[in-house]
Amino acid sequence: MRSKRKIRLAAAALASTLLLSACGGGSDTASTESNEELIAPPVVEVQASGGFNSPVKIASGVSFTLSAPTGFSLATEIADFLVTKNVPFGQAHEAAGACVAMCEKLNIELHQLSDEQFSLIHPSLDPSIREVLTVQGAIASRTTAGGTAPSEVKKQIAAGLKKSLHQRTEIANKSKAFSEMMSS
Q1: 75-133 is classed in which CATH architecture?
Q2: What is the average per-residue pLDDT within 151-178?
Q3: How far apart are alpha carbons 61 and 119 in whole angstroms?
Q4: Domain assignments of the chain as residue spans, ordered by start
Q5: How many helices (H) and strands (E) does the chain have?
Q6: Torsion angle, CA of 119/121/124/130, rounded to 10 degrees?
Q7: Do 172 and 180 meet the contact criterion of CB atoms below 8 Å apart?
Q8: What is the pTM of this model?
Q9: Could you tell me how far CA 90 lies from the centroid of its own chain?
Q10: Which of 3, 11, 33, 100 has the most crowded Cβ, counting Cβ within 10 A?
Q11: Contact in structure between 132 and 81 (CB atoms under 8 Å)
């Protein structure tokens, strides 16, 4: 019975060590001296310069480009804005569609509608609508759990780092137990 437990522990530790090696974290030999590198959370730094259509680089070497919206991709922001003003969603959706139709007729973008044009479409479309008709505004407006607002993204990152730390600690403990078992 004891030997089966040792085999299971050895297999778990070996699998953890292989997983860490495959993921680039850890070494190809088991070590009980320094598991701090297994436990330390990764540091992610994001650097962005310029504005939209400029590359964003993450410390790991990954880069991506943010693009400004084209067409009417922010039309849903109009409907969401109206809903926050207690306009029923059906009416809000119709107003967003009317904004798009007016833009198509005038060959302009949503943010180019005048305050007067917005208010003609729906009286609740006041000048503050402009705050959500930008990429930054649209991102910031998503404040529900798991949303894109910076406060929500920070929560998601913190939760991910906490989970990662827990998993790294668990792997380090198993690796240490395996090393101790193998040395006895």
Answers
A1: Orthogonal Bundle (1.10)
A2: 90
A3: 47
A4: 2-67+149-183, 75-133
A5: 7, 3
A6: -70
A7: no
A8: 0.52
A9: 30
A10: 100
A11: yes
Contacts of 152 (CB under 8 A, 6+ apart): 142, 143, 144, 145, 146
| DSSP helix/strand/coil, 140 | helix
| CA dist., res. 165 & res. 151, Å (int) | 21
- Which is nearest to 77 in space by CA: 111, 103, 115? 111
User: Which residues, other chains included, contact 104 with Cβ-Cβ below 8 Å and sequence gap of 6+?
Assistant: none
Give the pLDDT confidence of 31-59 residue by residue, as tens digits: 444 444 444 444 444 444 434 445 555 55
Residue of 38, 33, 6 lying closest to 21 (CA atoms) = 38
Residue 63 φ then ψ, to 5° = -135, 155
pLDDT band at 138 (very low <50, low <70, confident <90, very high): confident
Give 70's strand partners: none
Q: What is the CA radius of gyration of the chain?
A: 26
